[in-house]
Amino acid sequence: MEQRGEMIMEKCGPGELTRILNFYRFVIDETEGMSVFARWIYGKHPTEEQIRDYIKQGNMYYSEEGGHIVAAVAVTPYQTDEYHDINWQIALKDDEVAVVHLLGVNPHFQKSGIAKAMMKEIVDLAKSEGKKAVRLDALECNTPAHRLYESLGFQKRDVRNWYASNTGWINFYLFEYLL
Questions:
Q1: What does the DSSP assignment read for 94-139?
Q2: How many other CB atoms sit within 10 Å of the CB of residue 148?
Q3: Under 8 Å CB-to-CB from 169, ≥6 apart: which residues?
Q4: pLDDT grade, residue 3 (50/70/90)?
Q5: Confidence category of residue 7, pLDDT binned at 50, 70, 90
Q6: Which sign does the torsion angle of CA 133, 110, 21, 141 carry?
Q7: Torsion sign over Cα 81, 84, 86, 91
Q8: pLDDT tens-digit map of 55-79
Q9: pTM
Q10: Quick one: CA torsion of 156, 84, 35, 149, rounded to 10 degrees?
């Protein structure tokens, strides 16, 4: 596959809910290693309610090629309480941080640079909104995601054992990129 440089990240509108839900179902059903790395189970994580809320709040984005969604992600313009007690490089107010959730790539386009391009777009979006950092968490077992984030300059800052409906109690690594 050819490597991609820049992506155009579009904000999802309410009328695109079904498209986005179908995209995540497809990613979960067709991604090799899903049960090993990300461990998403549709309906448990992500849920329709999560995706609906991200779209309603204006925090869901996608990129498409040839009329098909090739990647989707939620980016909240704030961090929540579970991110407060983390060993971050610098202490920031909740609204000074952008947080990445649910980055998914169409399995037919994986390993082509789309996830990297989307993350670069997210960093640019956060900068344009005056944020001071981009933060995220990833399952400890999601080593492909760790390699992606670290290749972009994200630093692994901490580990937390959190409960997730799709995994039960499991370790999450927390990553940070200062802007």
A1: GGGEEEEEEEEE-GGGTTSSHHHHHHHHHHHHHHHTT-SEEEEEEE
A2: 18
A3: 161, 162, 163
A4: very low
A5: confident
A6: negative
A7: positive
A8: 999 999 999 998 899 999 999 999 9
A9: 0.95
A10: -30
CA distances from 151 to 38, 68, 96 (A): 18, 27, 23
Q: What is the CATH number of domain 10-178?
A: 3.40.630.30
- Answer whether 67's CB lies under 8 Å from 49's CB: no
Q: What is the DSSP letter of 8?
A: P
Q: How far is CA 122 from the centre of its chain?
A: 9
**Among all chains, which residue has been given the structure tokens 């440089």?**
5
Q: According to the model, what pLDDT value does residue 170 have?
A: 96
Instruction: Write the pLDDT tens digit of every residue in 83-103.
Output: 999 999 999 999 999 999 999
The alpha carbon of residue 178 and the mean position of all alpha carbons in its chain are separated, in whole angstroms, by 17
* Of 123, 65, 117, 72, residue with least CA distance to 98: 123
37, 80 Cβ separation under 8 angstroms:
no
144 upstream amide cis, omega within 30 of 0 = no
Provide the strand spans (E) within the chain.
10-11, 60-65, 68-76, 97-105, 133-139, 155-164, 168-178
Q: How many residues does this entry show for the chain?
A: 179
